[in-house]
Amino acid sequence: MIELVSTERCVGCTLCVKVCPTNVFDKGPDGIPSIARQEDCQTCFICEAYCPVDALYVSPFDLPLEAVPTEMELVEANLLGSWRETLGWGKGRTTLAELDTTPFIDRILPARR
Length: 113
Ligand code: SF4
Ligand code: SF4
What we know:
The protein is of the alpha+beta class.
């Protein structure tokens, strides 16, 4: 579930607002989005993948409020934008597509028996 928008990092590009399939964010007056409908988050990670400055954190778990890490803890654990990094999106990163040597047809067909 989306847990954090870093107002320190955000550059107000509104990409996350546009790509979220369930309209979780509201664009703020300064362009910085707010998490307006967290309960609608599908944990799809799309916003985090698109954020060009690694300003978002989507937790893979539905954390109780008291277990949600602070921004400082996320930065220290290198978790802000970590899904984007895993995908290899962003300058100087190696994409998963580059690493994946599976022939395309084997990726889309059921496993051979
Ligand atoms: S993880 Fe998906 S559903 Fe949740 S806020 Fe991001 S884009 Fe929207
Ligand atoms: S995609 Fe990132 S930089 Fe752009 S508005 Fe959203 S949080 Fe801010």
